[in-house]
Write a structure and sequence with these properties.
Oligomer: single chain
Distance between the termini: 52 Å
Largest sheet: 5 strands, mixed
Order of helices and strands: HHHHHHHHHEHEEHEEHHEE
Helix content: 55-70%
Number of strands: 7
Shape: elongated
Radius of gyration: 27 Å
């Protein structure tokens, strides 16, 4: 059977194996929609099948082998769109390459048993198929890399912008402290301002370091020891109250809060959740932290009342550099717009064998729920 007809006839079988392999790469549950995992796989295969049957002279073959085939840099090809979606879906470049390697192996493994004998035409079809796979891979990599470069530049721009505000506050406080005959009450006020700015910058640096480690593939490093989350909750509420003096924070605990946790990472997780809740909370409404122990796990919910988050945003809220608009305007409350806080919170929960979810409605507000096993091997 000609390879062109085989791909067309057995499209669903090939796509099923593609999806199965994508599941192993993404680590997502089987509940993830097939469309997300397949992306433009069908269109890629169709383009490959057509390419195999398209007449090609020696010059065109040489251009393709050198990665100079027409359309290689097109942003509209199925392979290019696939690369962009994979970059947006937290896949790595190595995972994208592995997908194409698996696709190549799958098609040849399913097709070759149906070939009666190895002939010049069969070899030519195999060569043309490999050329088409390589071109599709190049298109995906080019788009993936371009998106990654854009994301990196955007991240650096946001980081520079967000650091400017606390630095300006500290410089202004320093100038005022250098003045003679400054009232003692003013000195205390300026000291508190410097401390808040330093705490905000430290939070940004912690998130930046956590993000960098995950992008390097090393995951979120943890050192789990017997830890009482009660102390961490108290510390988080105290710091959040200092950063948002106009906000009310309510802590409710029920049961034993002791487990095997990395205390530093737990503080980072819940600090990010509570500060995020305060940032998007309607003034005058409390931020509630509800912690309870159930069997072999601890469940912590952080709730605030503000504008409900649209369903589409809930699907991407844990991705890095995702920022949601606020309705409160410039009300004087500190902002941290790096877009890394929830991403880091999710990575910390995963590193402890736990999970984090979010739901949002006008009636119940926005609730982030963290489930953590009390022990993790």
């Amino acid at each position: 059977m000609k390879l062109y007809y085989f791909i067309t006839k057995h499209m669903e079988d090939i796509l099923a194996e593609w999806e199965e392999f994508a599941h192993t790469l993404s680590g997502e549950s089987r509940e993830k929609p097939d469309l997300v995992l397949r992306d433009h796989a069908r269109e890629i295969l169709q383009a490959i099948a057509v390419d195999i049957e398209t007449q090609q002279d020696s010059e065109q073959q040489q251009q393709k082998s050198q990665g100079l085939a027409p359309g290689l840099y097109s942003q509209r090809s199925a392979a290019s769109i696939h690369g962009a979606l994979r970059q947006a879906g937290d896949f790595s470049l190595q995972q994208v390459s592995a997908e194409y390697r698996a696709l190549r192996a799958t098609v040849l493994r399913l097709w070759l048993p149906q070939v009666n004998g190895m002939s010049a035409k069969t070899i030519d079809q195999m060569v043309r198929f490999n050329e088409a796979i390589d071109q599709a891979l190049s298109e995906s990599i080019l788009t993936f890399s371009a998106r990654a470069d854009h994301t990196r530049e955007l991240f650096l721009a946001i980081l520079g912008h967000d650091l400017r505000a606390p630095l300006s506050n500290m410089v202004l406080a320093g100038d005022l402290l250098m003045r003679a005959n400054l009232h003692p009450d003013k000195i205390v006020e300026l000291g508190a301002r410097v401390k808040r700015s330093a705490r905000l910058m430290n939070s940004m640096v912690d998130d930046l370091l956590g993000y960098t480690r995950t992008q390097l593939g090393s995951g979120m490093p943890t050192l789990r020891l017997p830890t009482d989350l009660h102390d961490i909750f108290r510390s988080v509420v105290e710091e959040a109250s200092a950063s948002h003096p106009a906000m009310t924070f309510e802590l409710r605990e029920n049961g034993n809060m002791t487990g095997s946790f990395d205390a530093v990472r737990m503080h980072q997780l819940f600090s990010n959740l509570v500060l995020n809740a305060a940032q998007y909370c309607t003034p005058g409404r409390p931020v509630t932290i509800d912690a309870r122990s159930e069997e072999n796990k601890i469940i912590v919910s952080v709730q605030n009342y503000g504008a409900d988050i649209p369903f589409a945003s809930l699907q991407s809220i844990f991705k890095p550099l995702v920022q949601l608009p606020t309705d409160s305007g410039n009300d004087g409350r500190p902002r941290t717009s790096l877009g890394l806080g929830l991403f880091i919170a999710r990575e910390v929960a995963l590193a402890h064998g736990g999970k984090i979810s979010v739901e949002s409605s006008p009636e119940s507000g926005t609730i982030f729920t963290v489930e953590l096993p009390v022990s993790f091997p």
